[in-house]
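Before relying on records like the one below, remember that each one covers exactly one chain. Contacts with other chains, cofactors or solvent are not represented anywhere in the record.
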Amino acid sequence: MDYQALAELLYPNITETPEEVEARFPERNNPEGAVITRMAPSPTGFVHLGNLVQGLTSERMAHQSDGVLFLRVEDTDAKREVPGAVEVLINTLKHYGIQFDEGATVDGDSGDYGPYRQRQRASIYHVFAKKLVAEGHAYPCFCTEEELSAMREQQEAGKETTGYYGKYAIWRDRTLDEVKEQLDKGASWVLRFRSTGSIENQFKFDDLVKGKLTITENNVDHVLLKSDGIPTYHFAHAVDDHLMHTTHVVRGDEWLPSLPFHIQLFKTLGFKLPKYVHIGPLMKMDGNSKRKLSKRKDPELALTFYKAEGFPVEAVLEYLMTLLNSNYEDWRRANPTADMGEFKFSPKKLNPAGNLFDYAKLTDVSKNEIAKMDAEKVYTLLTEWAQEFDPDFAAKLTSDKDFAVSILSIGRGGKKPRKDMATWKEAKPYMGFFYDAYLEKPVFDERFSKEIIVSVLNKFIDRYDYADDSAVWFDKVKAITEEIGFTSDMKAYKADPDAFPGTVANVSTFIRQAVTGKTNSPDLYTVMQILGKDRSIDRIKKVIEDLK
């Protein structure tokens, strides 16, 4: 076979050489050791937690080394592409702090190594495809879908490995005339890689997460270019990562089976192989066993879930860092106020088997993160969330900012701040009672008569003075407690509960329920100071009327 003639036959219009293409993508001017990496998602419209894990890993590796993180859209599979998916992807990752130095943008490209959408790079791939054909490393295959299906059925029936290889690679060694005949008929064809590998051979390979792997050579003649001239992921990523000078490829370990082919492809093309970072899956407990998070079964896989629930970005990132590097929690304890970016991230500390996603732990982390924020920041983030997901609540919050901030200031600051909220969705149940529209009618403990409750509330109204400090306020509550035959001595009550019909805790709860509608609330004295005397007393009087 005259491979040069075959290359000219297949790609007569490709006149540019690989060297000329490479000249358009010069070496990057980054410091030694800088990581050049990318996120390279398919535009399917579904942005999931795994994307963020890969994005965070890539971002940390790039930016802590003075490197580059770029976004390349791998849109070679037109059937899976969803309109607007690129914009969703970029905006979602931006929401979670993943900032790209270059790459695809909502309305185009930014950077010197584009285009950053693979369908726009078709002519580039054809230059390298022609090179492979001319060197005898690739050939056209005219098999129909029916022929490939029959071949697969035959392999399965014989319990053989499925694929286009060996005796099944029926177009591998055809003559130039046979190829011409098919082209003259207008037959559809794909370009296949001519593998020289054997499954009898193995070699060692170092992955930055998995460690030293034993790899079996690839013997399959995989498709490089589809019938429409658009490359498969395998071919496109090799060419693009070479031209964009990618040093590290971060991706899920579902790509490990393709690694033998990718190594072979880089070598055949004469490209330097990047370092690979294969991340294990995110898993969850399902009964007594672990399984991968599933798009179909687990709403928490989608990043939109965390935004809708109201988890602050800081909380999600903080939690993911505890998953990604086992020493992160120790570092955080030693550096409680440091920026996350100061932590020295290492891909080698990723769990090779993947991580168990723990929703309860995320919630705890989120409570801590919200507790550390000042009231102004909480107000800003809560209002942003509410404007998108609870407009009525947002209107209440923004109608009187000072009032809302004073509520959110309760128990905030100091060595032991309150940890009332894990998500912004929990804010309305926590503080909604401050707004009359959300005030619920109290349901009192049936152990206590209406007469006792009304008596307590009337006595409290008679003695309430807005100017009292918290100590005087509570002394008055204790005095009422003793007057109705309850006790304010909790030790005595615990020693002999039957000796008292109730305690100061019960009396406080009656007042709390009358003011807030709830049995649990932030410090009641502070609540009444924020509500003001008139609103507090009016609420108590209304409850008295309802009880009569």
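The first strand starts at residue 36 and ends at 39.
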